[in-house]
Design a protein that fits this description.
Elements lengths: L2 H12 L11 H15 L13
């Protein structure tokens, strides 16, 4: 499989859904992301945990 096909297959397998929310700034976005991840109760990896962001 190509990388794109693997990516699509992994989303189907994990039964993930994507949605967007508009917020005023990065601080609010990070707070919202933290709340959403806490609701799921899963320690998902995300870009906010890299490089001091």
């Amino acid at each position: 499989m190509r990388a794109v096909q693997w990516g699509k297959a992994s989303l189907v397998w994990a039964d993930l859904h994507v949605c967007w929310a508009l917020v005023e700034d990065q601080e609010e976005a990070l707070a919202l992301e933290k709340r959403v991840l806490a609701v799921r109760g899963i320690g998902w990896w995300n870009r906010a945990h890299r490089g001091g962001h």
